[in-house]
Amino acid sequence: MSDVLDLAGVTVTRGRTVLLASVNWQVAAGERWVVLGANGAGKSTLLSIAAARLHPSRGEVRILGETLGRVDVFELRPRIGLASNALAQQVPGSEPVRDVVVTAAYGVTGRWNESYAEDDLARAAELLGQMGVGKLAARPYGTLSDGERKRVQIARALMTDPELLLLDEPAGGLDLGGREDLLRRLTGLIEDPAAPTAVLVTHHVEEIPAGVTHALLLRKGRVVAAGPVADVLTSEQLSVTFGLPLSVSRRAGRFYARAL
Ligand SMILES: Nc1ncnc2c1ncn2[C@@H]1O[C@H](COP(=O)(O)OP(=O)(O)OP(=O)(O)O)[C@@H](O)[C@H]1O
C-alpha cells in the first residue's frame, strides 16, 4: 500500500527550541491514526507539517506521493481536509454555517463570492446533515456552541472529498454529552471504508474514537512509539509519554487512563 504520509528525520526548530526532533513516520492508505502527547509535545506542529502548512527545518516530508518543497502546496492542500482551532479562528463570526463549509471547496475562509455551484451547496448540506448540524446551515457561525462548531469544522474538512483527513483535537473542550456524540460520529466516519485516511490529535486517551487503528506517541518533540494501537497504547508507553505512572484500559474499542 502506498504511503499517504512519509516523514523522514523531520526536525522543526524555532531559535534554540526544538519542536520536533528527527521524527520518522509512515501512514499508509486506509489507516486511522491518533497522535497523542502532553501539552507542548509537538502534536500541532506535526499536524501542520502533515497538512502542508509548515516546512520542516530538516528532514524530508512526502504527502500523498508529493515531496514538500518540490510541490505547489496550493495544489496539494485541497487534497487534505484539515480541522483545527487555528483554522477555525479565521472564520468570521457572521459567516453563515453553510458558507463556512462550502468555502472549503474554494480553499478560503470567509465568503468571497456571491454565488456557489449548486453541487457544492448540496454537498455542504449533506455533510452538515451527516454531522448532525444540518438545521444550523443558515445560522451565523459565531452563534454556535463549541460542540456545534467542531462538527461544522469537520464537515468543512470533508468538503473537498480529501484523500487525507486531519483533525486537531476534534473533541477538545466539549462537555461529556458533546464529546460522546462527536466520538460516535467520528467512529461512524472512520469505520466507513470509503472514508479518507485519517489522523487525529488529542491529549486525552478518552477522546480516541473507537475504530482508530494506529497511534503515534510524542514526548517533547520525540516519538516514543508508533504503530498499531494494541502495541502502542500500553500503560508503560503512555506513562513514558505523559511522564507519570498511568494505568490504561480498553473497553469496546475505547481507552481510559488513570494515574497510579
Ligand atoms: N515560534 C515558536 N517559538 C518557540 N517555541 C514554539 C514556537 N511555536 C511553538 N513553540 C513551542 O513548541 C512546542 C510544541 O507546540 P505544539 O503546539 O506543536 O504542541 P502540542 O503538542 O500541539 O500542544 P497542545 O496539546 O498544548 O496544543 C510548545 O512547547 C510550544 O510552546
Report on the architecture of this protein.
It comes from Kineococcus xinjiangensis. Keywords: ATP-binding, Nucleotide-binding, Transport. GO terms for molecular function: ATP binding; ATP hydrolysis activity; transmembrane transporter activity. InterPro entries: AAA+_ATPase (IPR003593), ABC_transporter-like_ATP-bd (IPR003439), ABC_transpr_CbiO/EcfA_su (IPR015856), P-loop_NTPase (IPR027417). This protein is α/β, with parallel strands linked by helices. It has a domain at 3-85 and 163-259: P-loop containing nucleotide triphosphate hydrolases (Rossmann fold, 3-Layer(aba) Sandwich), CATH 3.40.50. The protein is built from nine helices and twelve strands. It has helices at residues 43-50, 73-76, 85-88, 97-102, 118-130, 146-158, 176-190, 229-232, 235-242, and strands spanning 3-14, 17-28, 32-37, 58-63, 66-67, 80-83, 164-168, 197-202, 214-219, 222-228, 246-251, 254-259. A six-stranded mixed beta sheet has the order 6-7-8-3-9-10, with helices on both faces. Helix 7 links the parallel strand 7 and strand 8. The radius of gyration is 18 Å and the shape is globular. The termini are far apart. The chain binds adenosine-5'-triphosphate. Adenosine-5'-triphosphate is lined by residues 14, 17, 19, 37, 39-45, 203.
| Overall pLDDT level | 91
Instruction: Please name the CATH architecture of the domain at 3-85 and 163-259.
Output: 3-Layer(aba) Sandwich
Distance between the termini: 40 Å
Bound small molecules, deduplicated: adenosine-5'-triphosphate
CATH class designation of the domain at 3-85 and 163-259? Alpha Beta
CATH superfamily of the domain at 3-85 and 163-259: P-loop containing nucleotide triphosphate hydrolases
* CATH fold-level name of the domain at 3-85 and 163-259: Rossmann fold
Discrete helix count: 9
Spans where pLDDT lies below 50 across 5 or more residues: none
Report the principal-axis shape. globular
The helical percent reads: 25-40%
Calculate Rg over CA atoms: 18 Å
Q: Count of DSSP E strands? A: 12
- H/E element sequence: EEEHEEHEHHHHEHEEEHHEE
Domain ABC transporter: 5-245
GO molecular function, one term: ATP hydrolysis activity
Keywords: ATP-binding, Nucleotide-binding, Transport
Protein name: Iron complex transport system ATP-binding protein
